[in-house]
Write a structure and sequence with these properties.
The chain is an alpha/beta fold. Helix content is about 40%, strand content about 15%. The chain contains seven helices and nine strands; from the N terminus they run E-H-E-H-E-E-E-H-E-E-E-H-E-H-H-H. It has helices at about 30-35, 45-50, 80-95, 130-140, 155-175, 180-195, 200-210; strands spanning about 10, 40-45, 60-65, 65-70, 75-80, 100, 115, 125-130, 145-150. The radius of gyration is 20 Å and the shape is elongated. The two termini are about 25 Å apart. The structure holds iron/sulfur cluster (SF4). Iron/sulfur cluster (SF4) binds next to helix 2.
Length: about 220
């Protein structure tokens, strides 16, 4: 049986790793629990990292003079700049990763459909956007598998996510070893999978692999 390379995956820490939600809860996520055996997780909680503490009052994204801000309505704190600084620092220092599993509906971790409110007062959402950390992840890693635990309950989305995750982890190993022989092996192992996704791209990759005089 083929041995799979262990992917390195950044995960929202409240998913199976820590009681770090605003109310001290941890969220159960069957896919994160199952993957612990096969994946090297890097758990992180952006809200704790910027010093909001546990428990804490929830934060939300509001529209303020045409600009999105991340605020804590109860305290009136605006933590937008702290959150942006954390996202940059963390993503610049985390090293090479193969994917992300993020908490959905969070104004920090969610990567899509996060509610934006017109003010800090009680009101309905007026639009949707990315959370701060989730949005920064999408911007920095547009080609990596990035999903939330809500979407990963869909078996088709889960299959695509896991396929991409494990193939990219295998490719990361090939790149780090730097030999054409390993690249040829990678291509052979994944030929039919690549063909199923795109025959045109497979031909381009085949031409690269065939050019054995070149180094990796
Ligand atoms: S969603 Fe993100 S910021 Fe919120 S508790 Fe979970 S890990 Fe922390």
């Amino acid at each position: 049986m083929r041995e799979f390379v262990r992917p390195k995956v950044v995960v929202s820490k409240c998913l199976e790793f820590d009681h770090c939600r605003y109310n001290g809860d941890m969220i159960s996520s069957p896919i994160v629990a199952k993957l612990k055996e096969h994946v090297d997780f890097v758990p992180v909680c952006a809200e704790v990292e910027i010093g909001l503490g546990i428990p804490r009052s929830p934060v939300r994204i509001i529209l303020d003079n045409g600009e999105h801000r991340l605020v804590q309505p109860v305290s009136g704190k605006d933590v937008t700049e702290d959150m942006k600084a954390f996202c940059t620092k963390f993503l610049d220092s985390v090293g090479e990763v193969d994917g992300f599993i993020l908490k959905f509906r969070s104004p920090s971790c969610g990567f899509k459909d996060i509610k934006v409110y017109p003010s800090i007062g009680k009101s309905g959402a007026i639009e949707k956007t990315s959370g701060y950390f989730g949005g920064a992840v999408l911007k920095k890693y547009p080609f990596l598998p990035v999903e939330d635990e809500g979407r990963l309950k869909n078996s088709r989305i889960k299959e695509h996510f896991l396929t991409k995750l494990f193939v990219l982890a295998a490719f990361r190993k090939v790149k780090s070893e730097g030999s054409m022989k390993d690249l040829v092996r990678f291509h052979t192992d994944n030929k039919y999978l690549l063909m199923a996704y795109s025959q045109a791209e497979l031909r381009k990759l085949g031409a690269i692999v065939a050019n054995k005089e070149k180094n990796l």
